[in-house]
């Protein structure tokens, strides 16, 4: 299972980010990501054996994230990957600490962890031709109070996301998990426009 941990926005933030994506698309071309898929990746865990999922869920349950504000205040463009993204100039220490704690605990279980710098961003466009001319839209304040575990499935139309677990609030009782494959319990699923 290809898994990642992410900040998943609520409807208001998601709608504003999607407006930014549509506006940038008019100028930059490319492919607008579907509103329901917009997120900030905390950590990409790569391929995880499904048998190890209970270990990961237990780790999440004991690692809450204190509420914080993330201010998305600029757009950027990675020309090598042709991606237009929204980013935050300031990164709350509590977010970095929680991310580091999650990765440290996951590594301690024997999992392979790729160390990479953390640059919180939301991918808005793929296959864009250029950077947007206005790189400083009106700042968007995102009140974050948790994170999710997402299963990413590759399809011909792009990744398909399935939220497996979420942790909301600063207490362990804010944790809930959706059993993966053989459960009658529905999972939240998201796709990407082609």
Characterization of this structure:
It is a single chain. The chain has 194 residues and is an alpha+beta fold. Helix content is 22%, strand content 37%. The chain has three helices and eleven strands; from the N terminus they run βαββαββαββββββ. Strands 1, 3, 8, 9, 10 and 11 form a six-stranded antiparallel beta sheet that branches. Strands 2-6-5-4-7 form a five-stranded antiparallel beta sheet, with helices on one face. β9 and β10 (175-177) form a beta hairpin. It starts with a strand and ends with a strand. Mean pLDDT is 87; it is low at 179-194.
SS-derived structural category:
alpha+beta
3D shape: globular
The beta-strand count equals 11
| Element-by-element helix/strand order | EHEEHEEHEEEEEE
| End-to-end Cα distance | 22 Å
Radius of gyration: 17 Å
**Number of helices, where a helix is a run of at least 4 consecutive DSSP H or I residues:** 3
Low-confidence stretches: 179-194
